[in-house]
Design a protein that fits this description.
Helix content is about 40%, strand content about 20%. The protein is an alpha/beta fold. It folds into two domains: about 120 residues, Response regulator (Rossmann fold), CATH 3.40.50; about 100 residues, Winged helix-like DNA-binding domain superfamily/Winged helix DNA-binding domain (Arc Repressor Mutant, subunit A). The strands form three sheets. It has a five-stranded parallel β-sheet, sandwiched between helices. It has a four-stranded antiparallel β-sheet with strand order 6-7-8-9, covered by helices on one side. The protein has a two-stranded antiparallel sheet with strand order 10-11.
Amino acid sequence: MHLLIIEDDREAAGWLVKGLKEAGHVADHAADGEEGLQMARDGDYDVLVVDRMMPKMDGLTVVRTLREEGDTTPALFLSALGDVEARVEGLRAGGDDYLAKPYAFAELLARVEGLGRRKTAEPVRTRLKVGDLEMDLLKREVSRAGEKILLQPREFKLLEYLMRNAGSVVTRTMLLENVWDYHFDPQTNVIDVHISRLRGKIDKGFDTPLLHTVRGAGYMLRAG
């Protein structure tokens, strides 16, 4: 897991980072609340470990701000304040767990890994959207600007893969392996034929093309 430790006590933070790395995780450190908030915004973390009392910005404010911005990364508060009122305040600020100091590292590790498992158990996506193109995975329906588009099963699978990787170049090899289940290039024009048919169905008649050929690399689905 990729963890962010927001802790102003450098000795304590160094001990935490060392222990978490030895346990097989990647751990970054922010030395105060303001730095921690910015790193949490910029990074893709699985769990935040946040000291409650810090200079510049306290831990409660850091987590509360992230929650107001829509960031749901699990957060574990660390604090010398261990009474019920303090724990409740931390949870109401958006924390997912609360551990009073002093604590055993083994317990902190177990709690962090538990929060990490909770994040990975995210709901399965049932709808995909790129610009005005939408796909309902449960109903197996596709529409653009409210207009239904009829696709053959292979075309649907191809579009689903492109939508899941929207904004990124998708190579021929990636398409062969993930859409056709080929682990070698059969030297056919099967991809070109299907891309052409798909482009005719999702782009023809619309002002803005979504499916682009990236010369020498592959294809990309993107809005604008």
